[in-house]
Amino acid sequence: MDLYLMRHGQTFFNQVGLVQGACDSPLTELGIEQARKAGEFFKDQQINFDAIYASTQERACDTAEIVSQRTDYKRLKGLKEWDFGLFEAQPEKLTPRFREGANSFEDLFVPYGGEDVRAVGERMKVALTSIAEEESGTVLAVSHGGSMWAFLLVLGVDVDSTLRFGNCAICHYRYENGSFRLVEVIDPLDN
Questions:
Q1: Which residues lie closer than 8 Å to 119 by C-beta, 6 or more apart?
Q2: Which residues does substrate bind (predicted)?
Q3: Which of 81, 88, 115, 135 is catalytic?
Q4: Residue 121's Cα: distance from chain center in Å?
Q5: Residue 81 is among the residues annotated as catalytic for this protein
Q6: pLDDT, tens digit, 9 for 90 and up, residues 124-164
Q7: The domain containing residue 105 runs over which residues?
Q8: Which residues are annotated as a binding site?
Q9: Binding-site residue ranges for substrate
């Protein structure tokens, strides 16, 4: 099974530099255009989806609809964004800094009512494994940058620490014999 795990398009909170995790904000005009371009990328590559999933958050659902031009997708809570606790809707500059040598926020949000990175990654792994076990062919799942990063960490994928998931970034995975393998990271806005 081929899984295209994708981040949503730009939102209002992205535009103004606010933290958004469990809270939501709508796609901007640019975010809508980014989703359209991602849809064009899939069309140009002749990638058709046998099934489509999205986080329950509005920004992911809207992106899934724009990219696929379909409404027959399934919403899945396990694909939602990392909960940042009290940092939600606050300026990004207020978030804690990584510990020396760390490649994520680890458990830094937990004392403020947020999630631990491993919990987010495990939640994503459970959700994506259930999709992979249920579906065959090619699947699109629209999620969020923090959750996508946490999933990579739980899988133990060795990635460059400078890798960032911009809006509409895509991780192409192959699921075989009960495990995920990262095939490539795609920036559909750069094509």
A1: none
A2: 7-14, 59
A3: 81
A4: 11
A5: yes
A6: 999 999 999 999 999 999 999 999 999 999 999 887 767 78
A7: 2-190
A8: 7-14, 59
A9: 7-14, 59
pTM over 0.85: yes
96 CB contacts (<8 Å, ≥6 apart)? 105, 108, 109
Predicted pLDDT of residue 191? 62
Q: What is the Rg, in whole angstroms, of the alpha carbon atoms belonging to the chain? A: 16
SS3 call for 51: strand
Q: Does the annotation count 40 as an active-site position?
A: no
Dist CA 89 CA 20 (whole Å): 6
* CATH number of the domain that residue 137 is part of: 3.40.50.1240
Domain count, the chain: 1
Catalytic, out of 8, 88, 135, 144: 8
pLDDT tens track for 3-52: 999 999 999 999 999 999 999 999 999 999 999 999 999 999 999 999 99
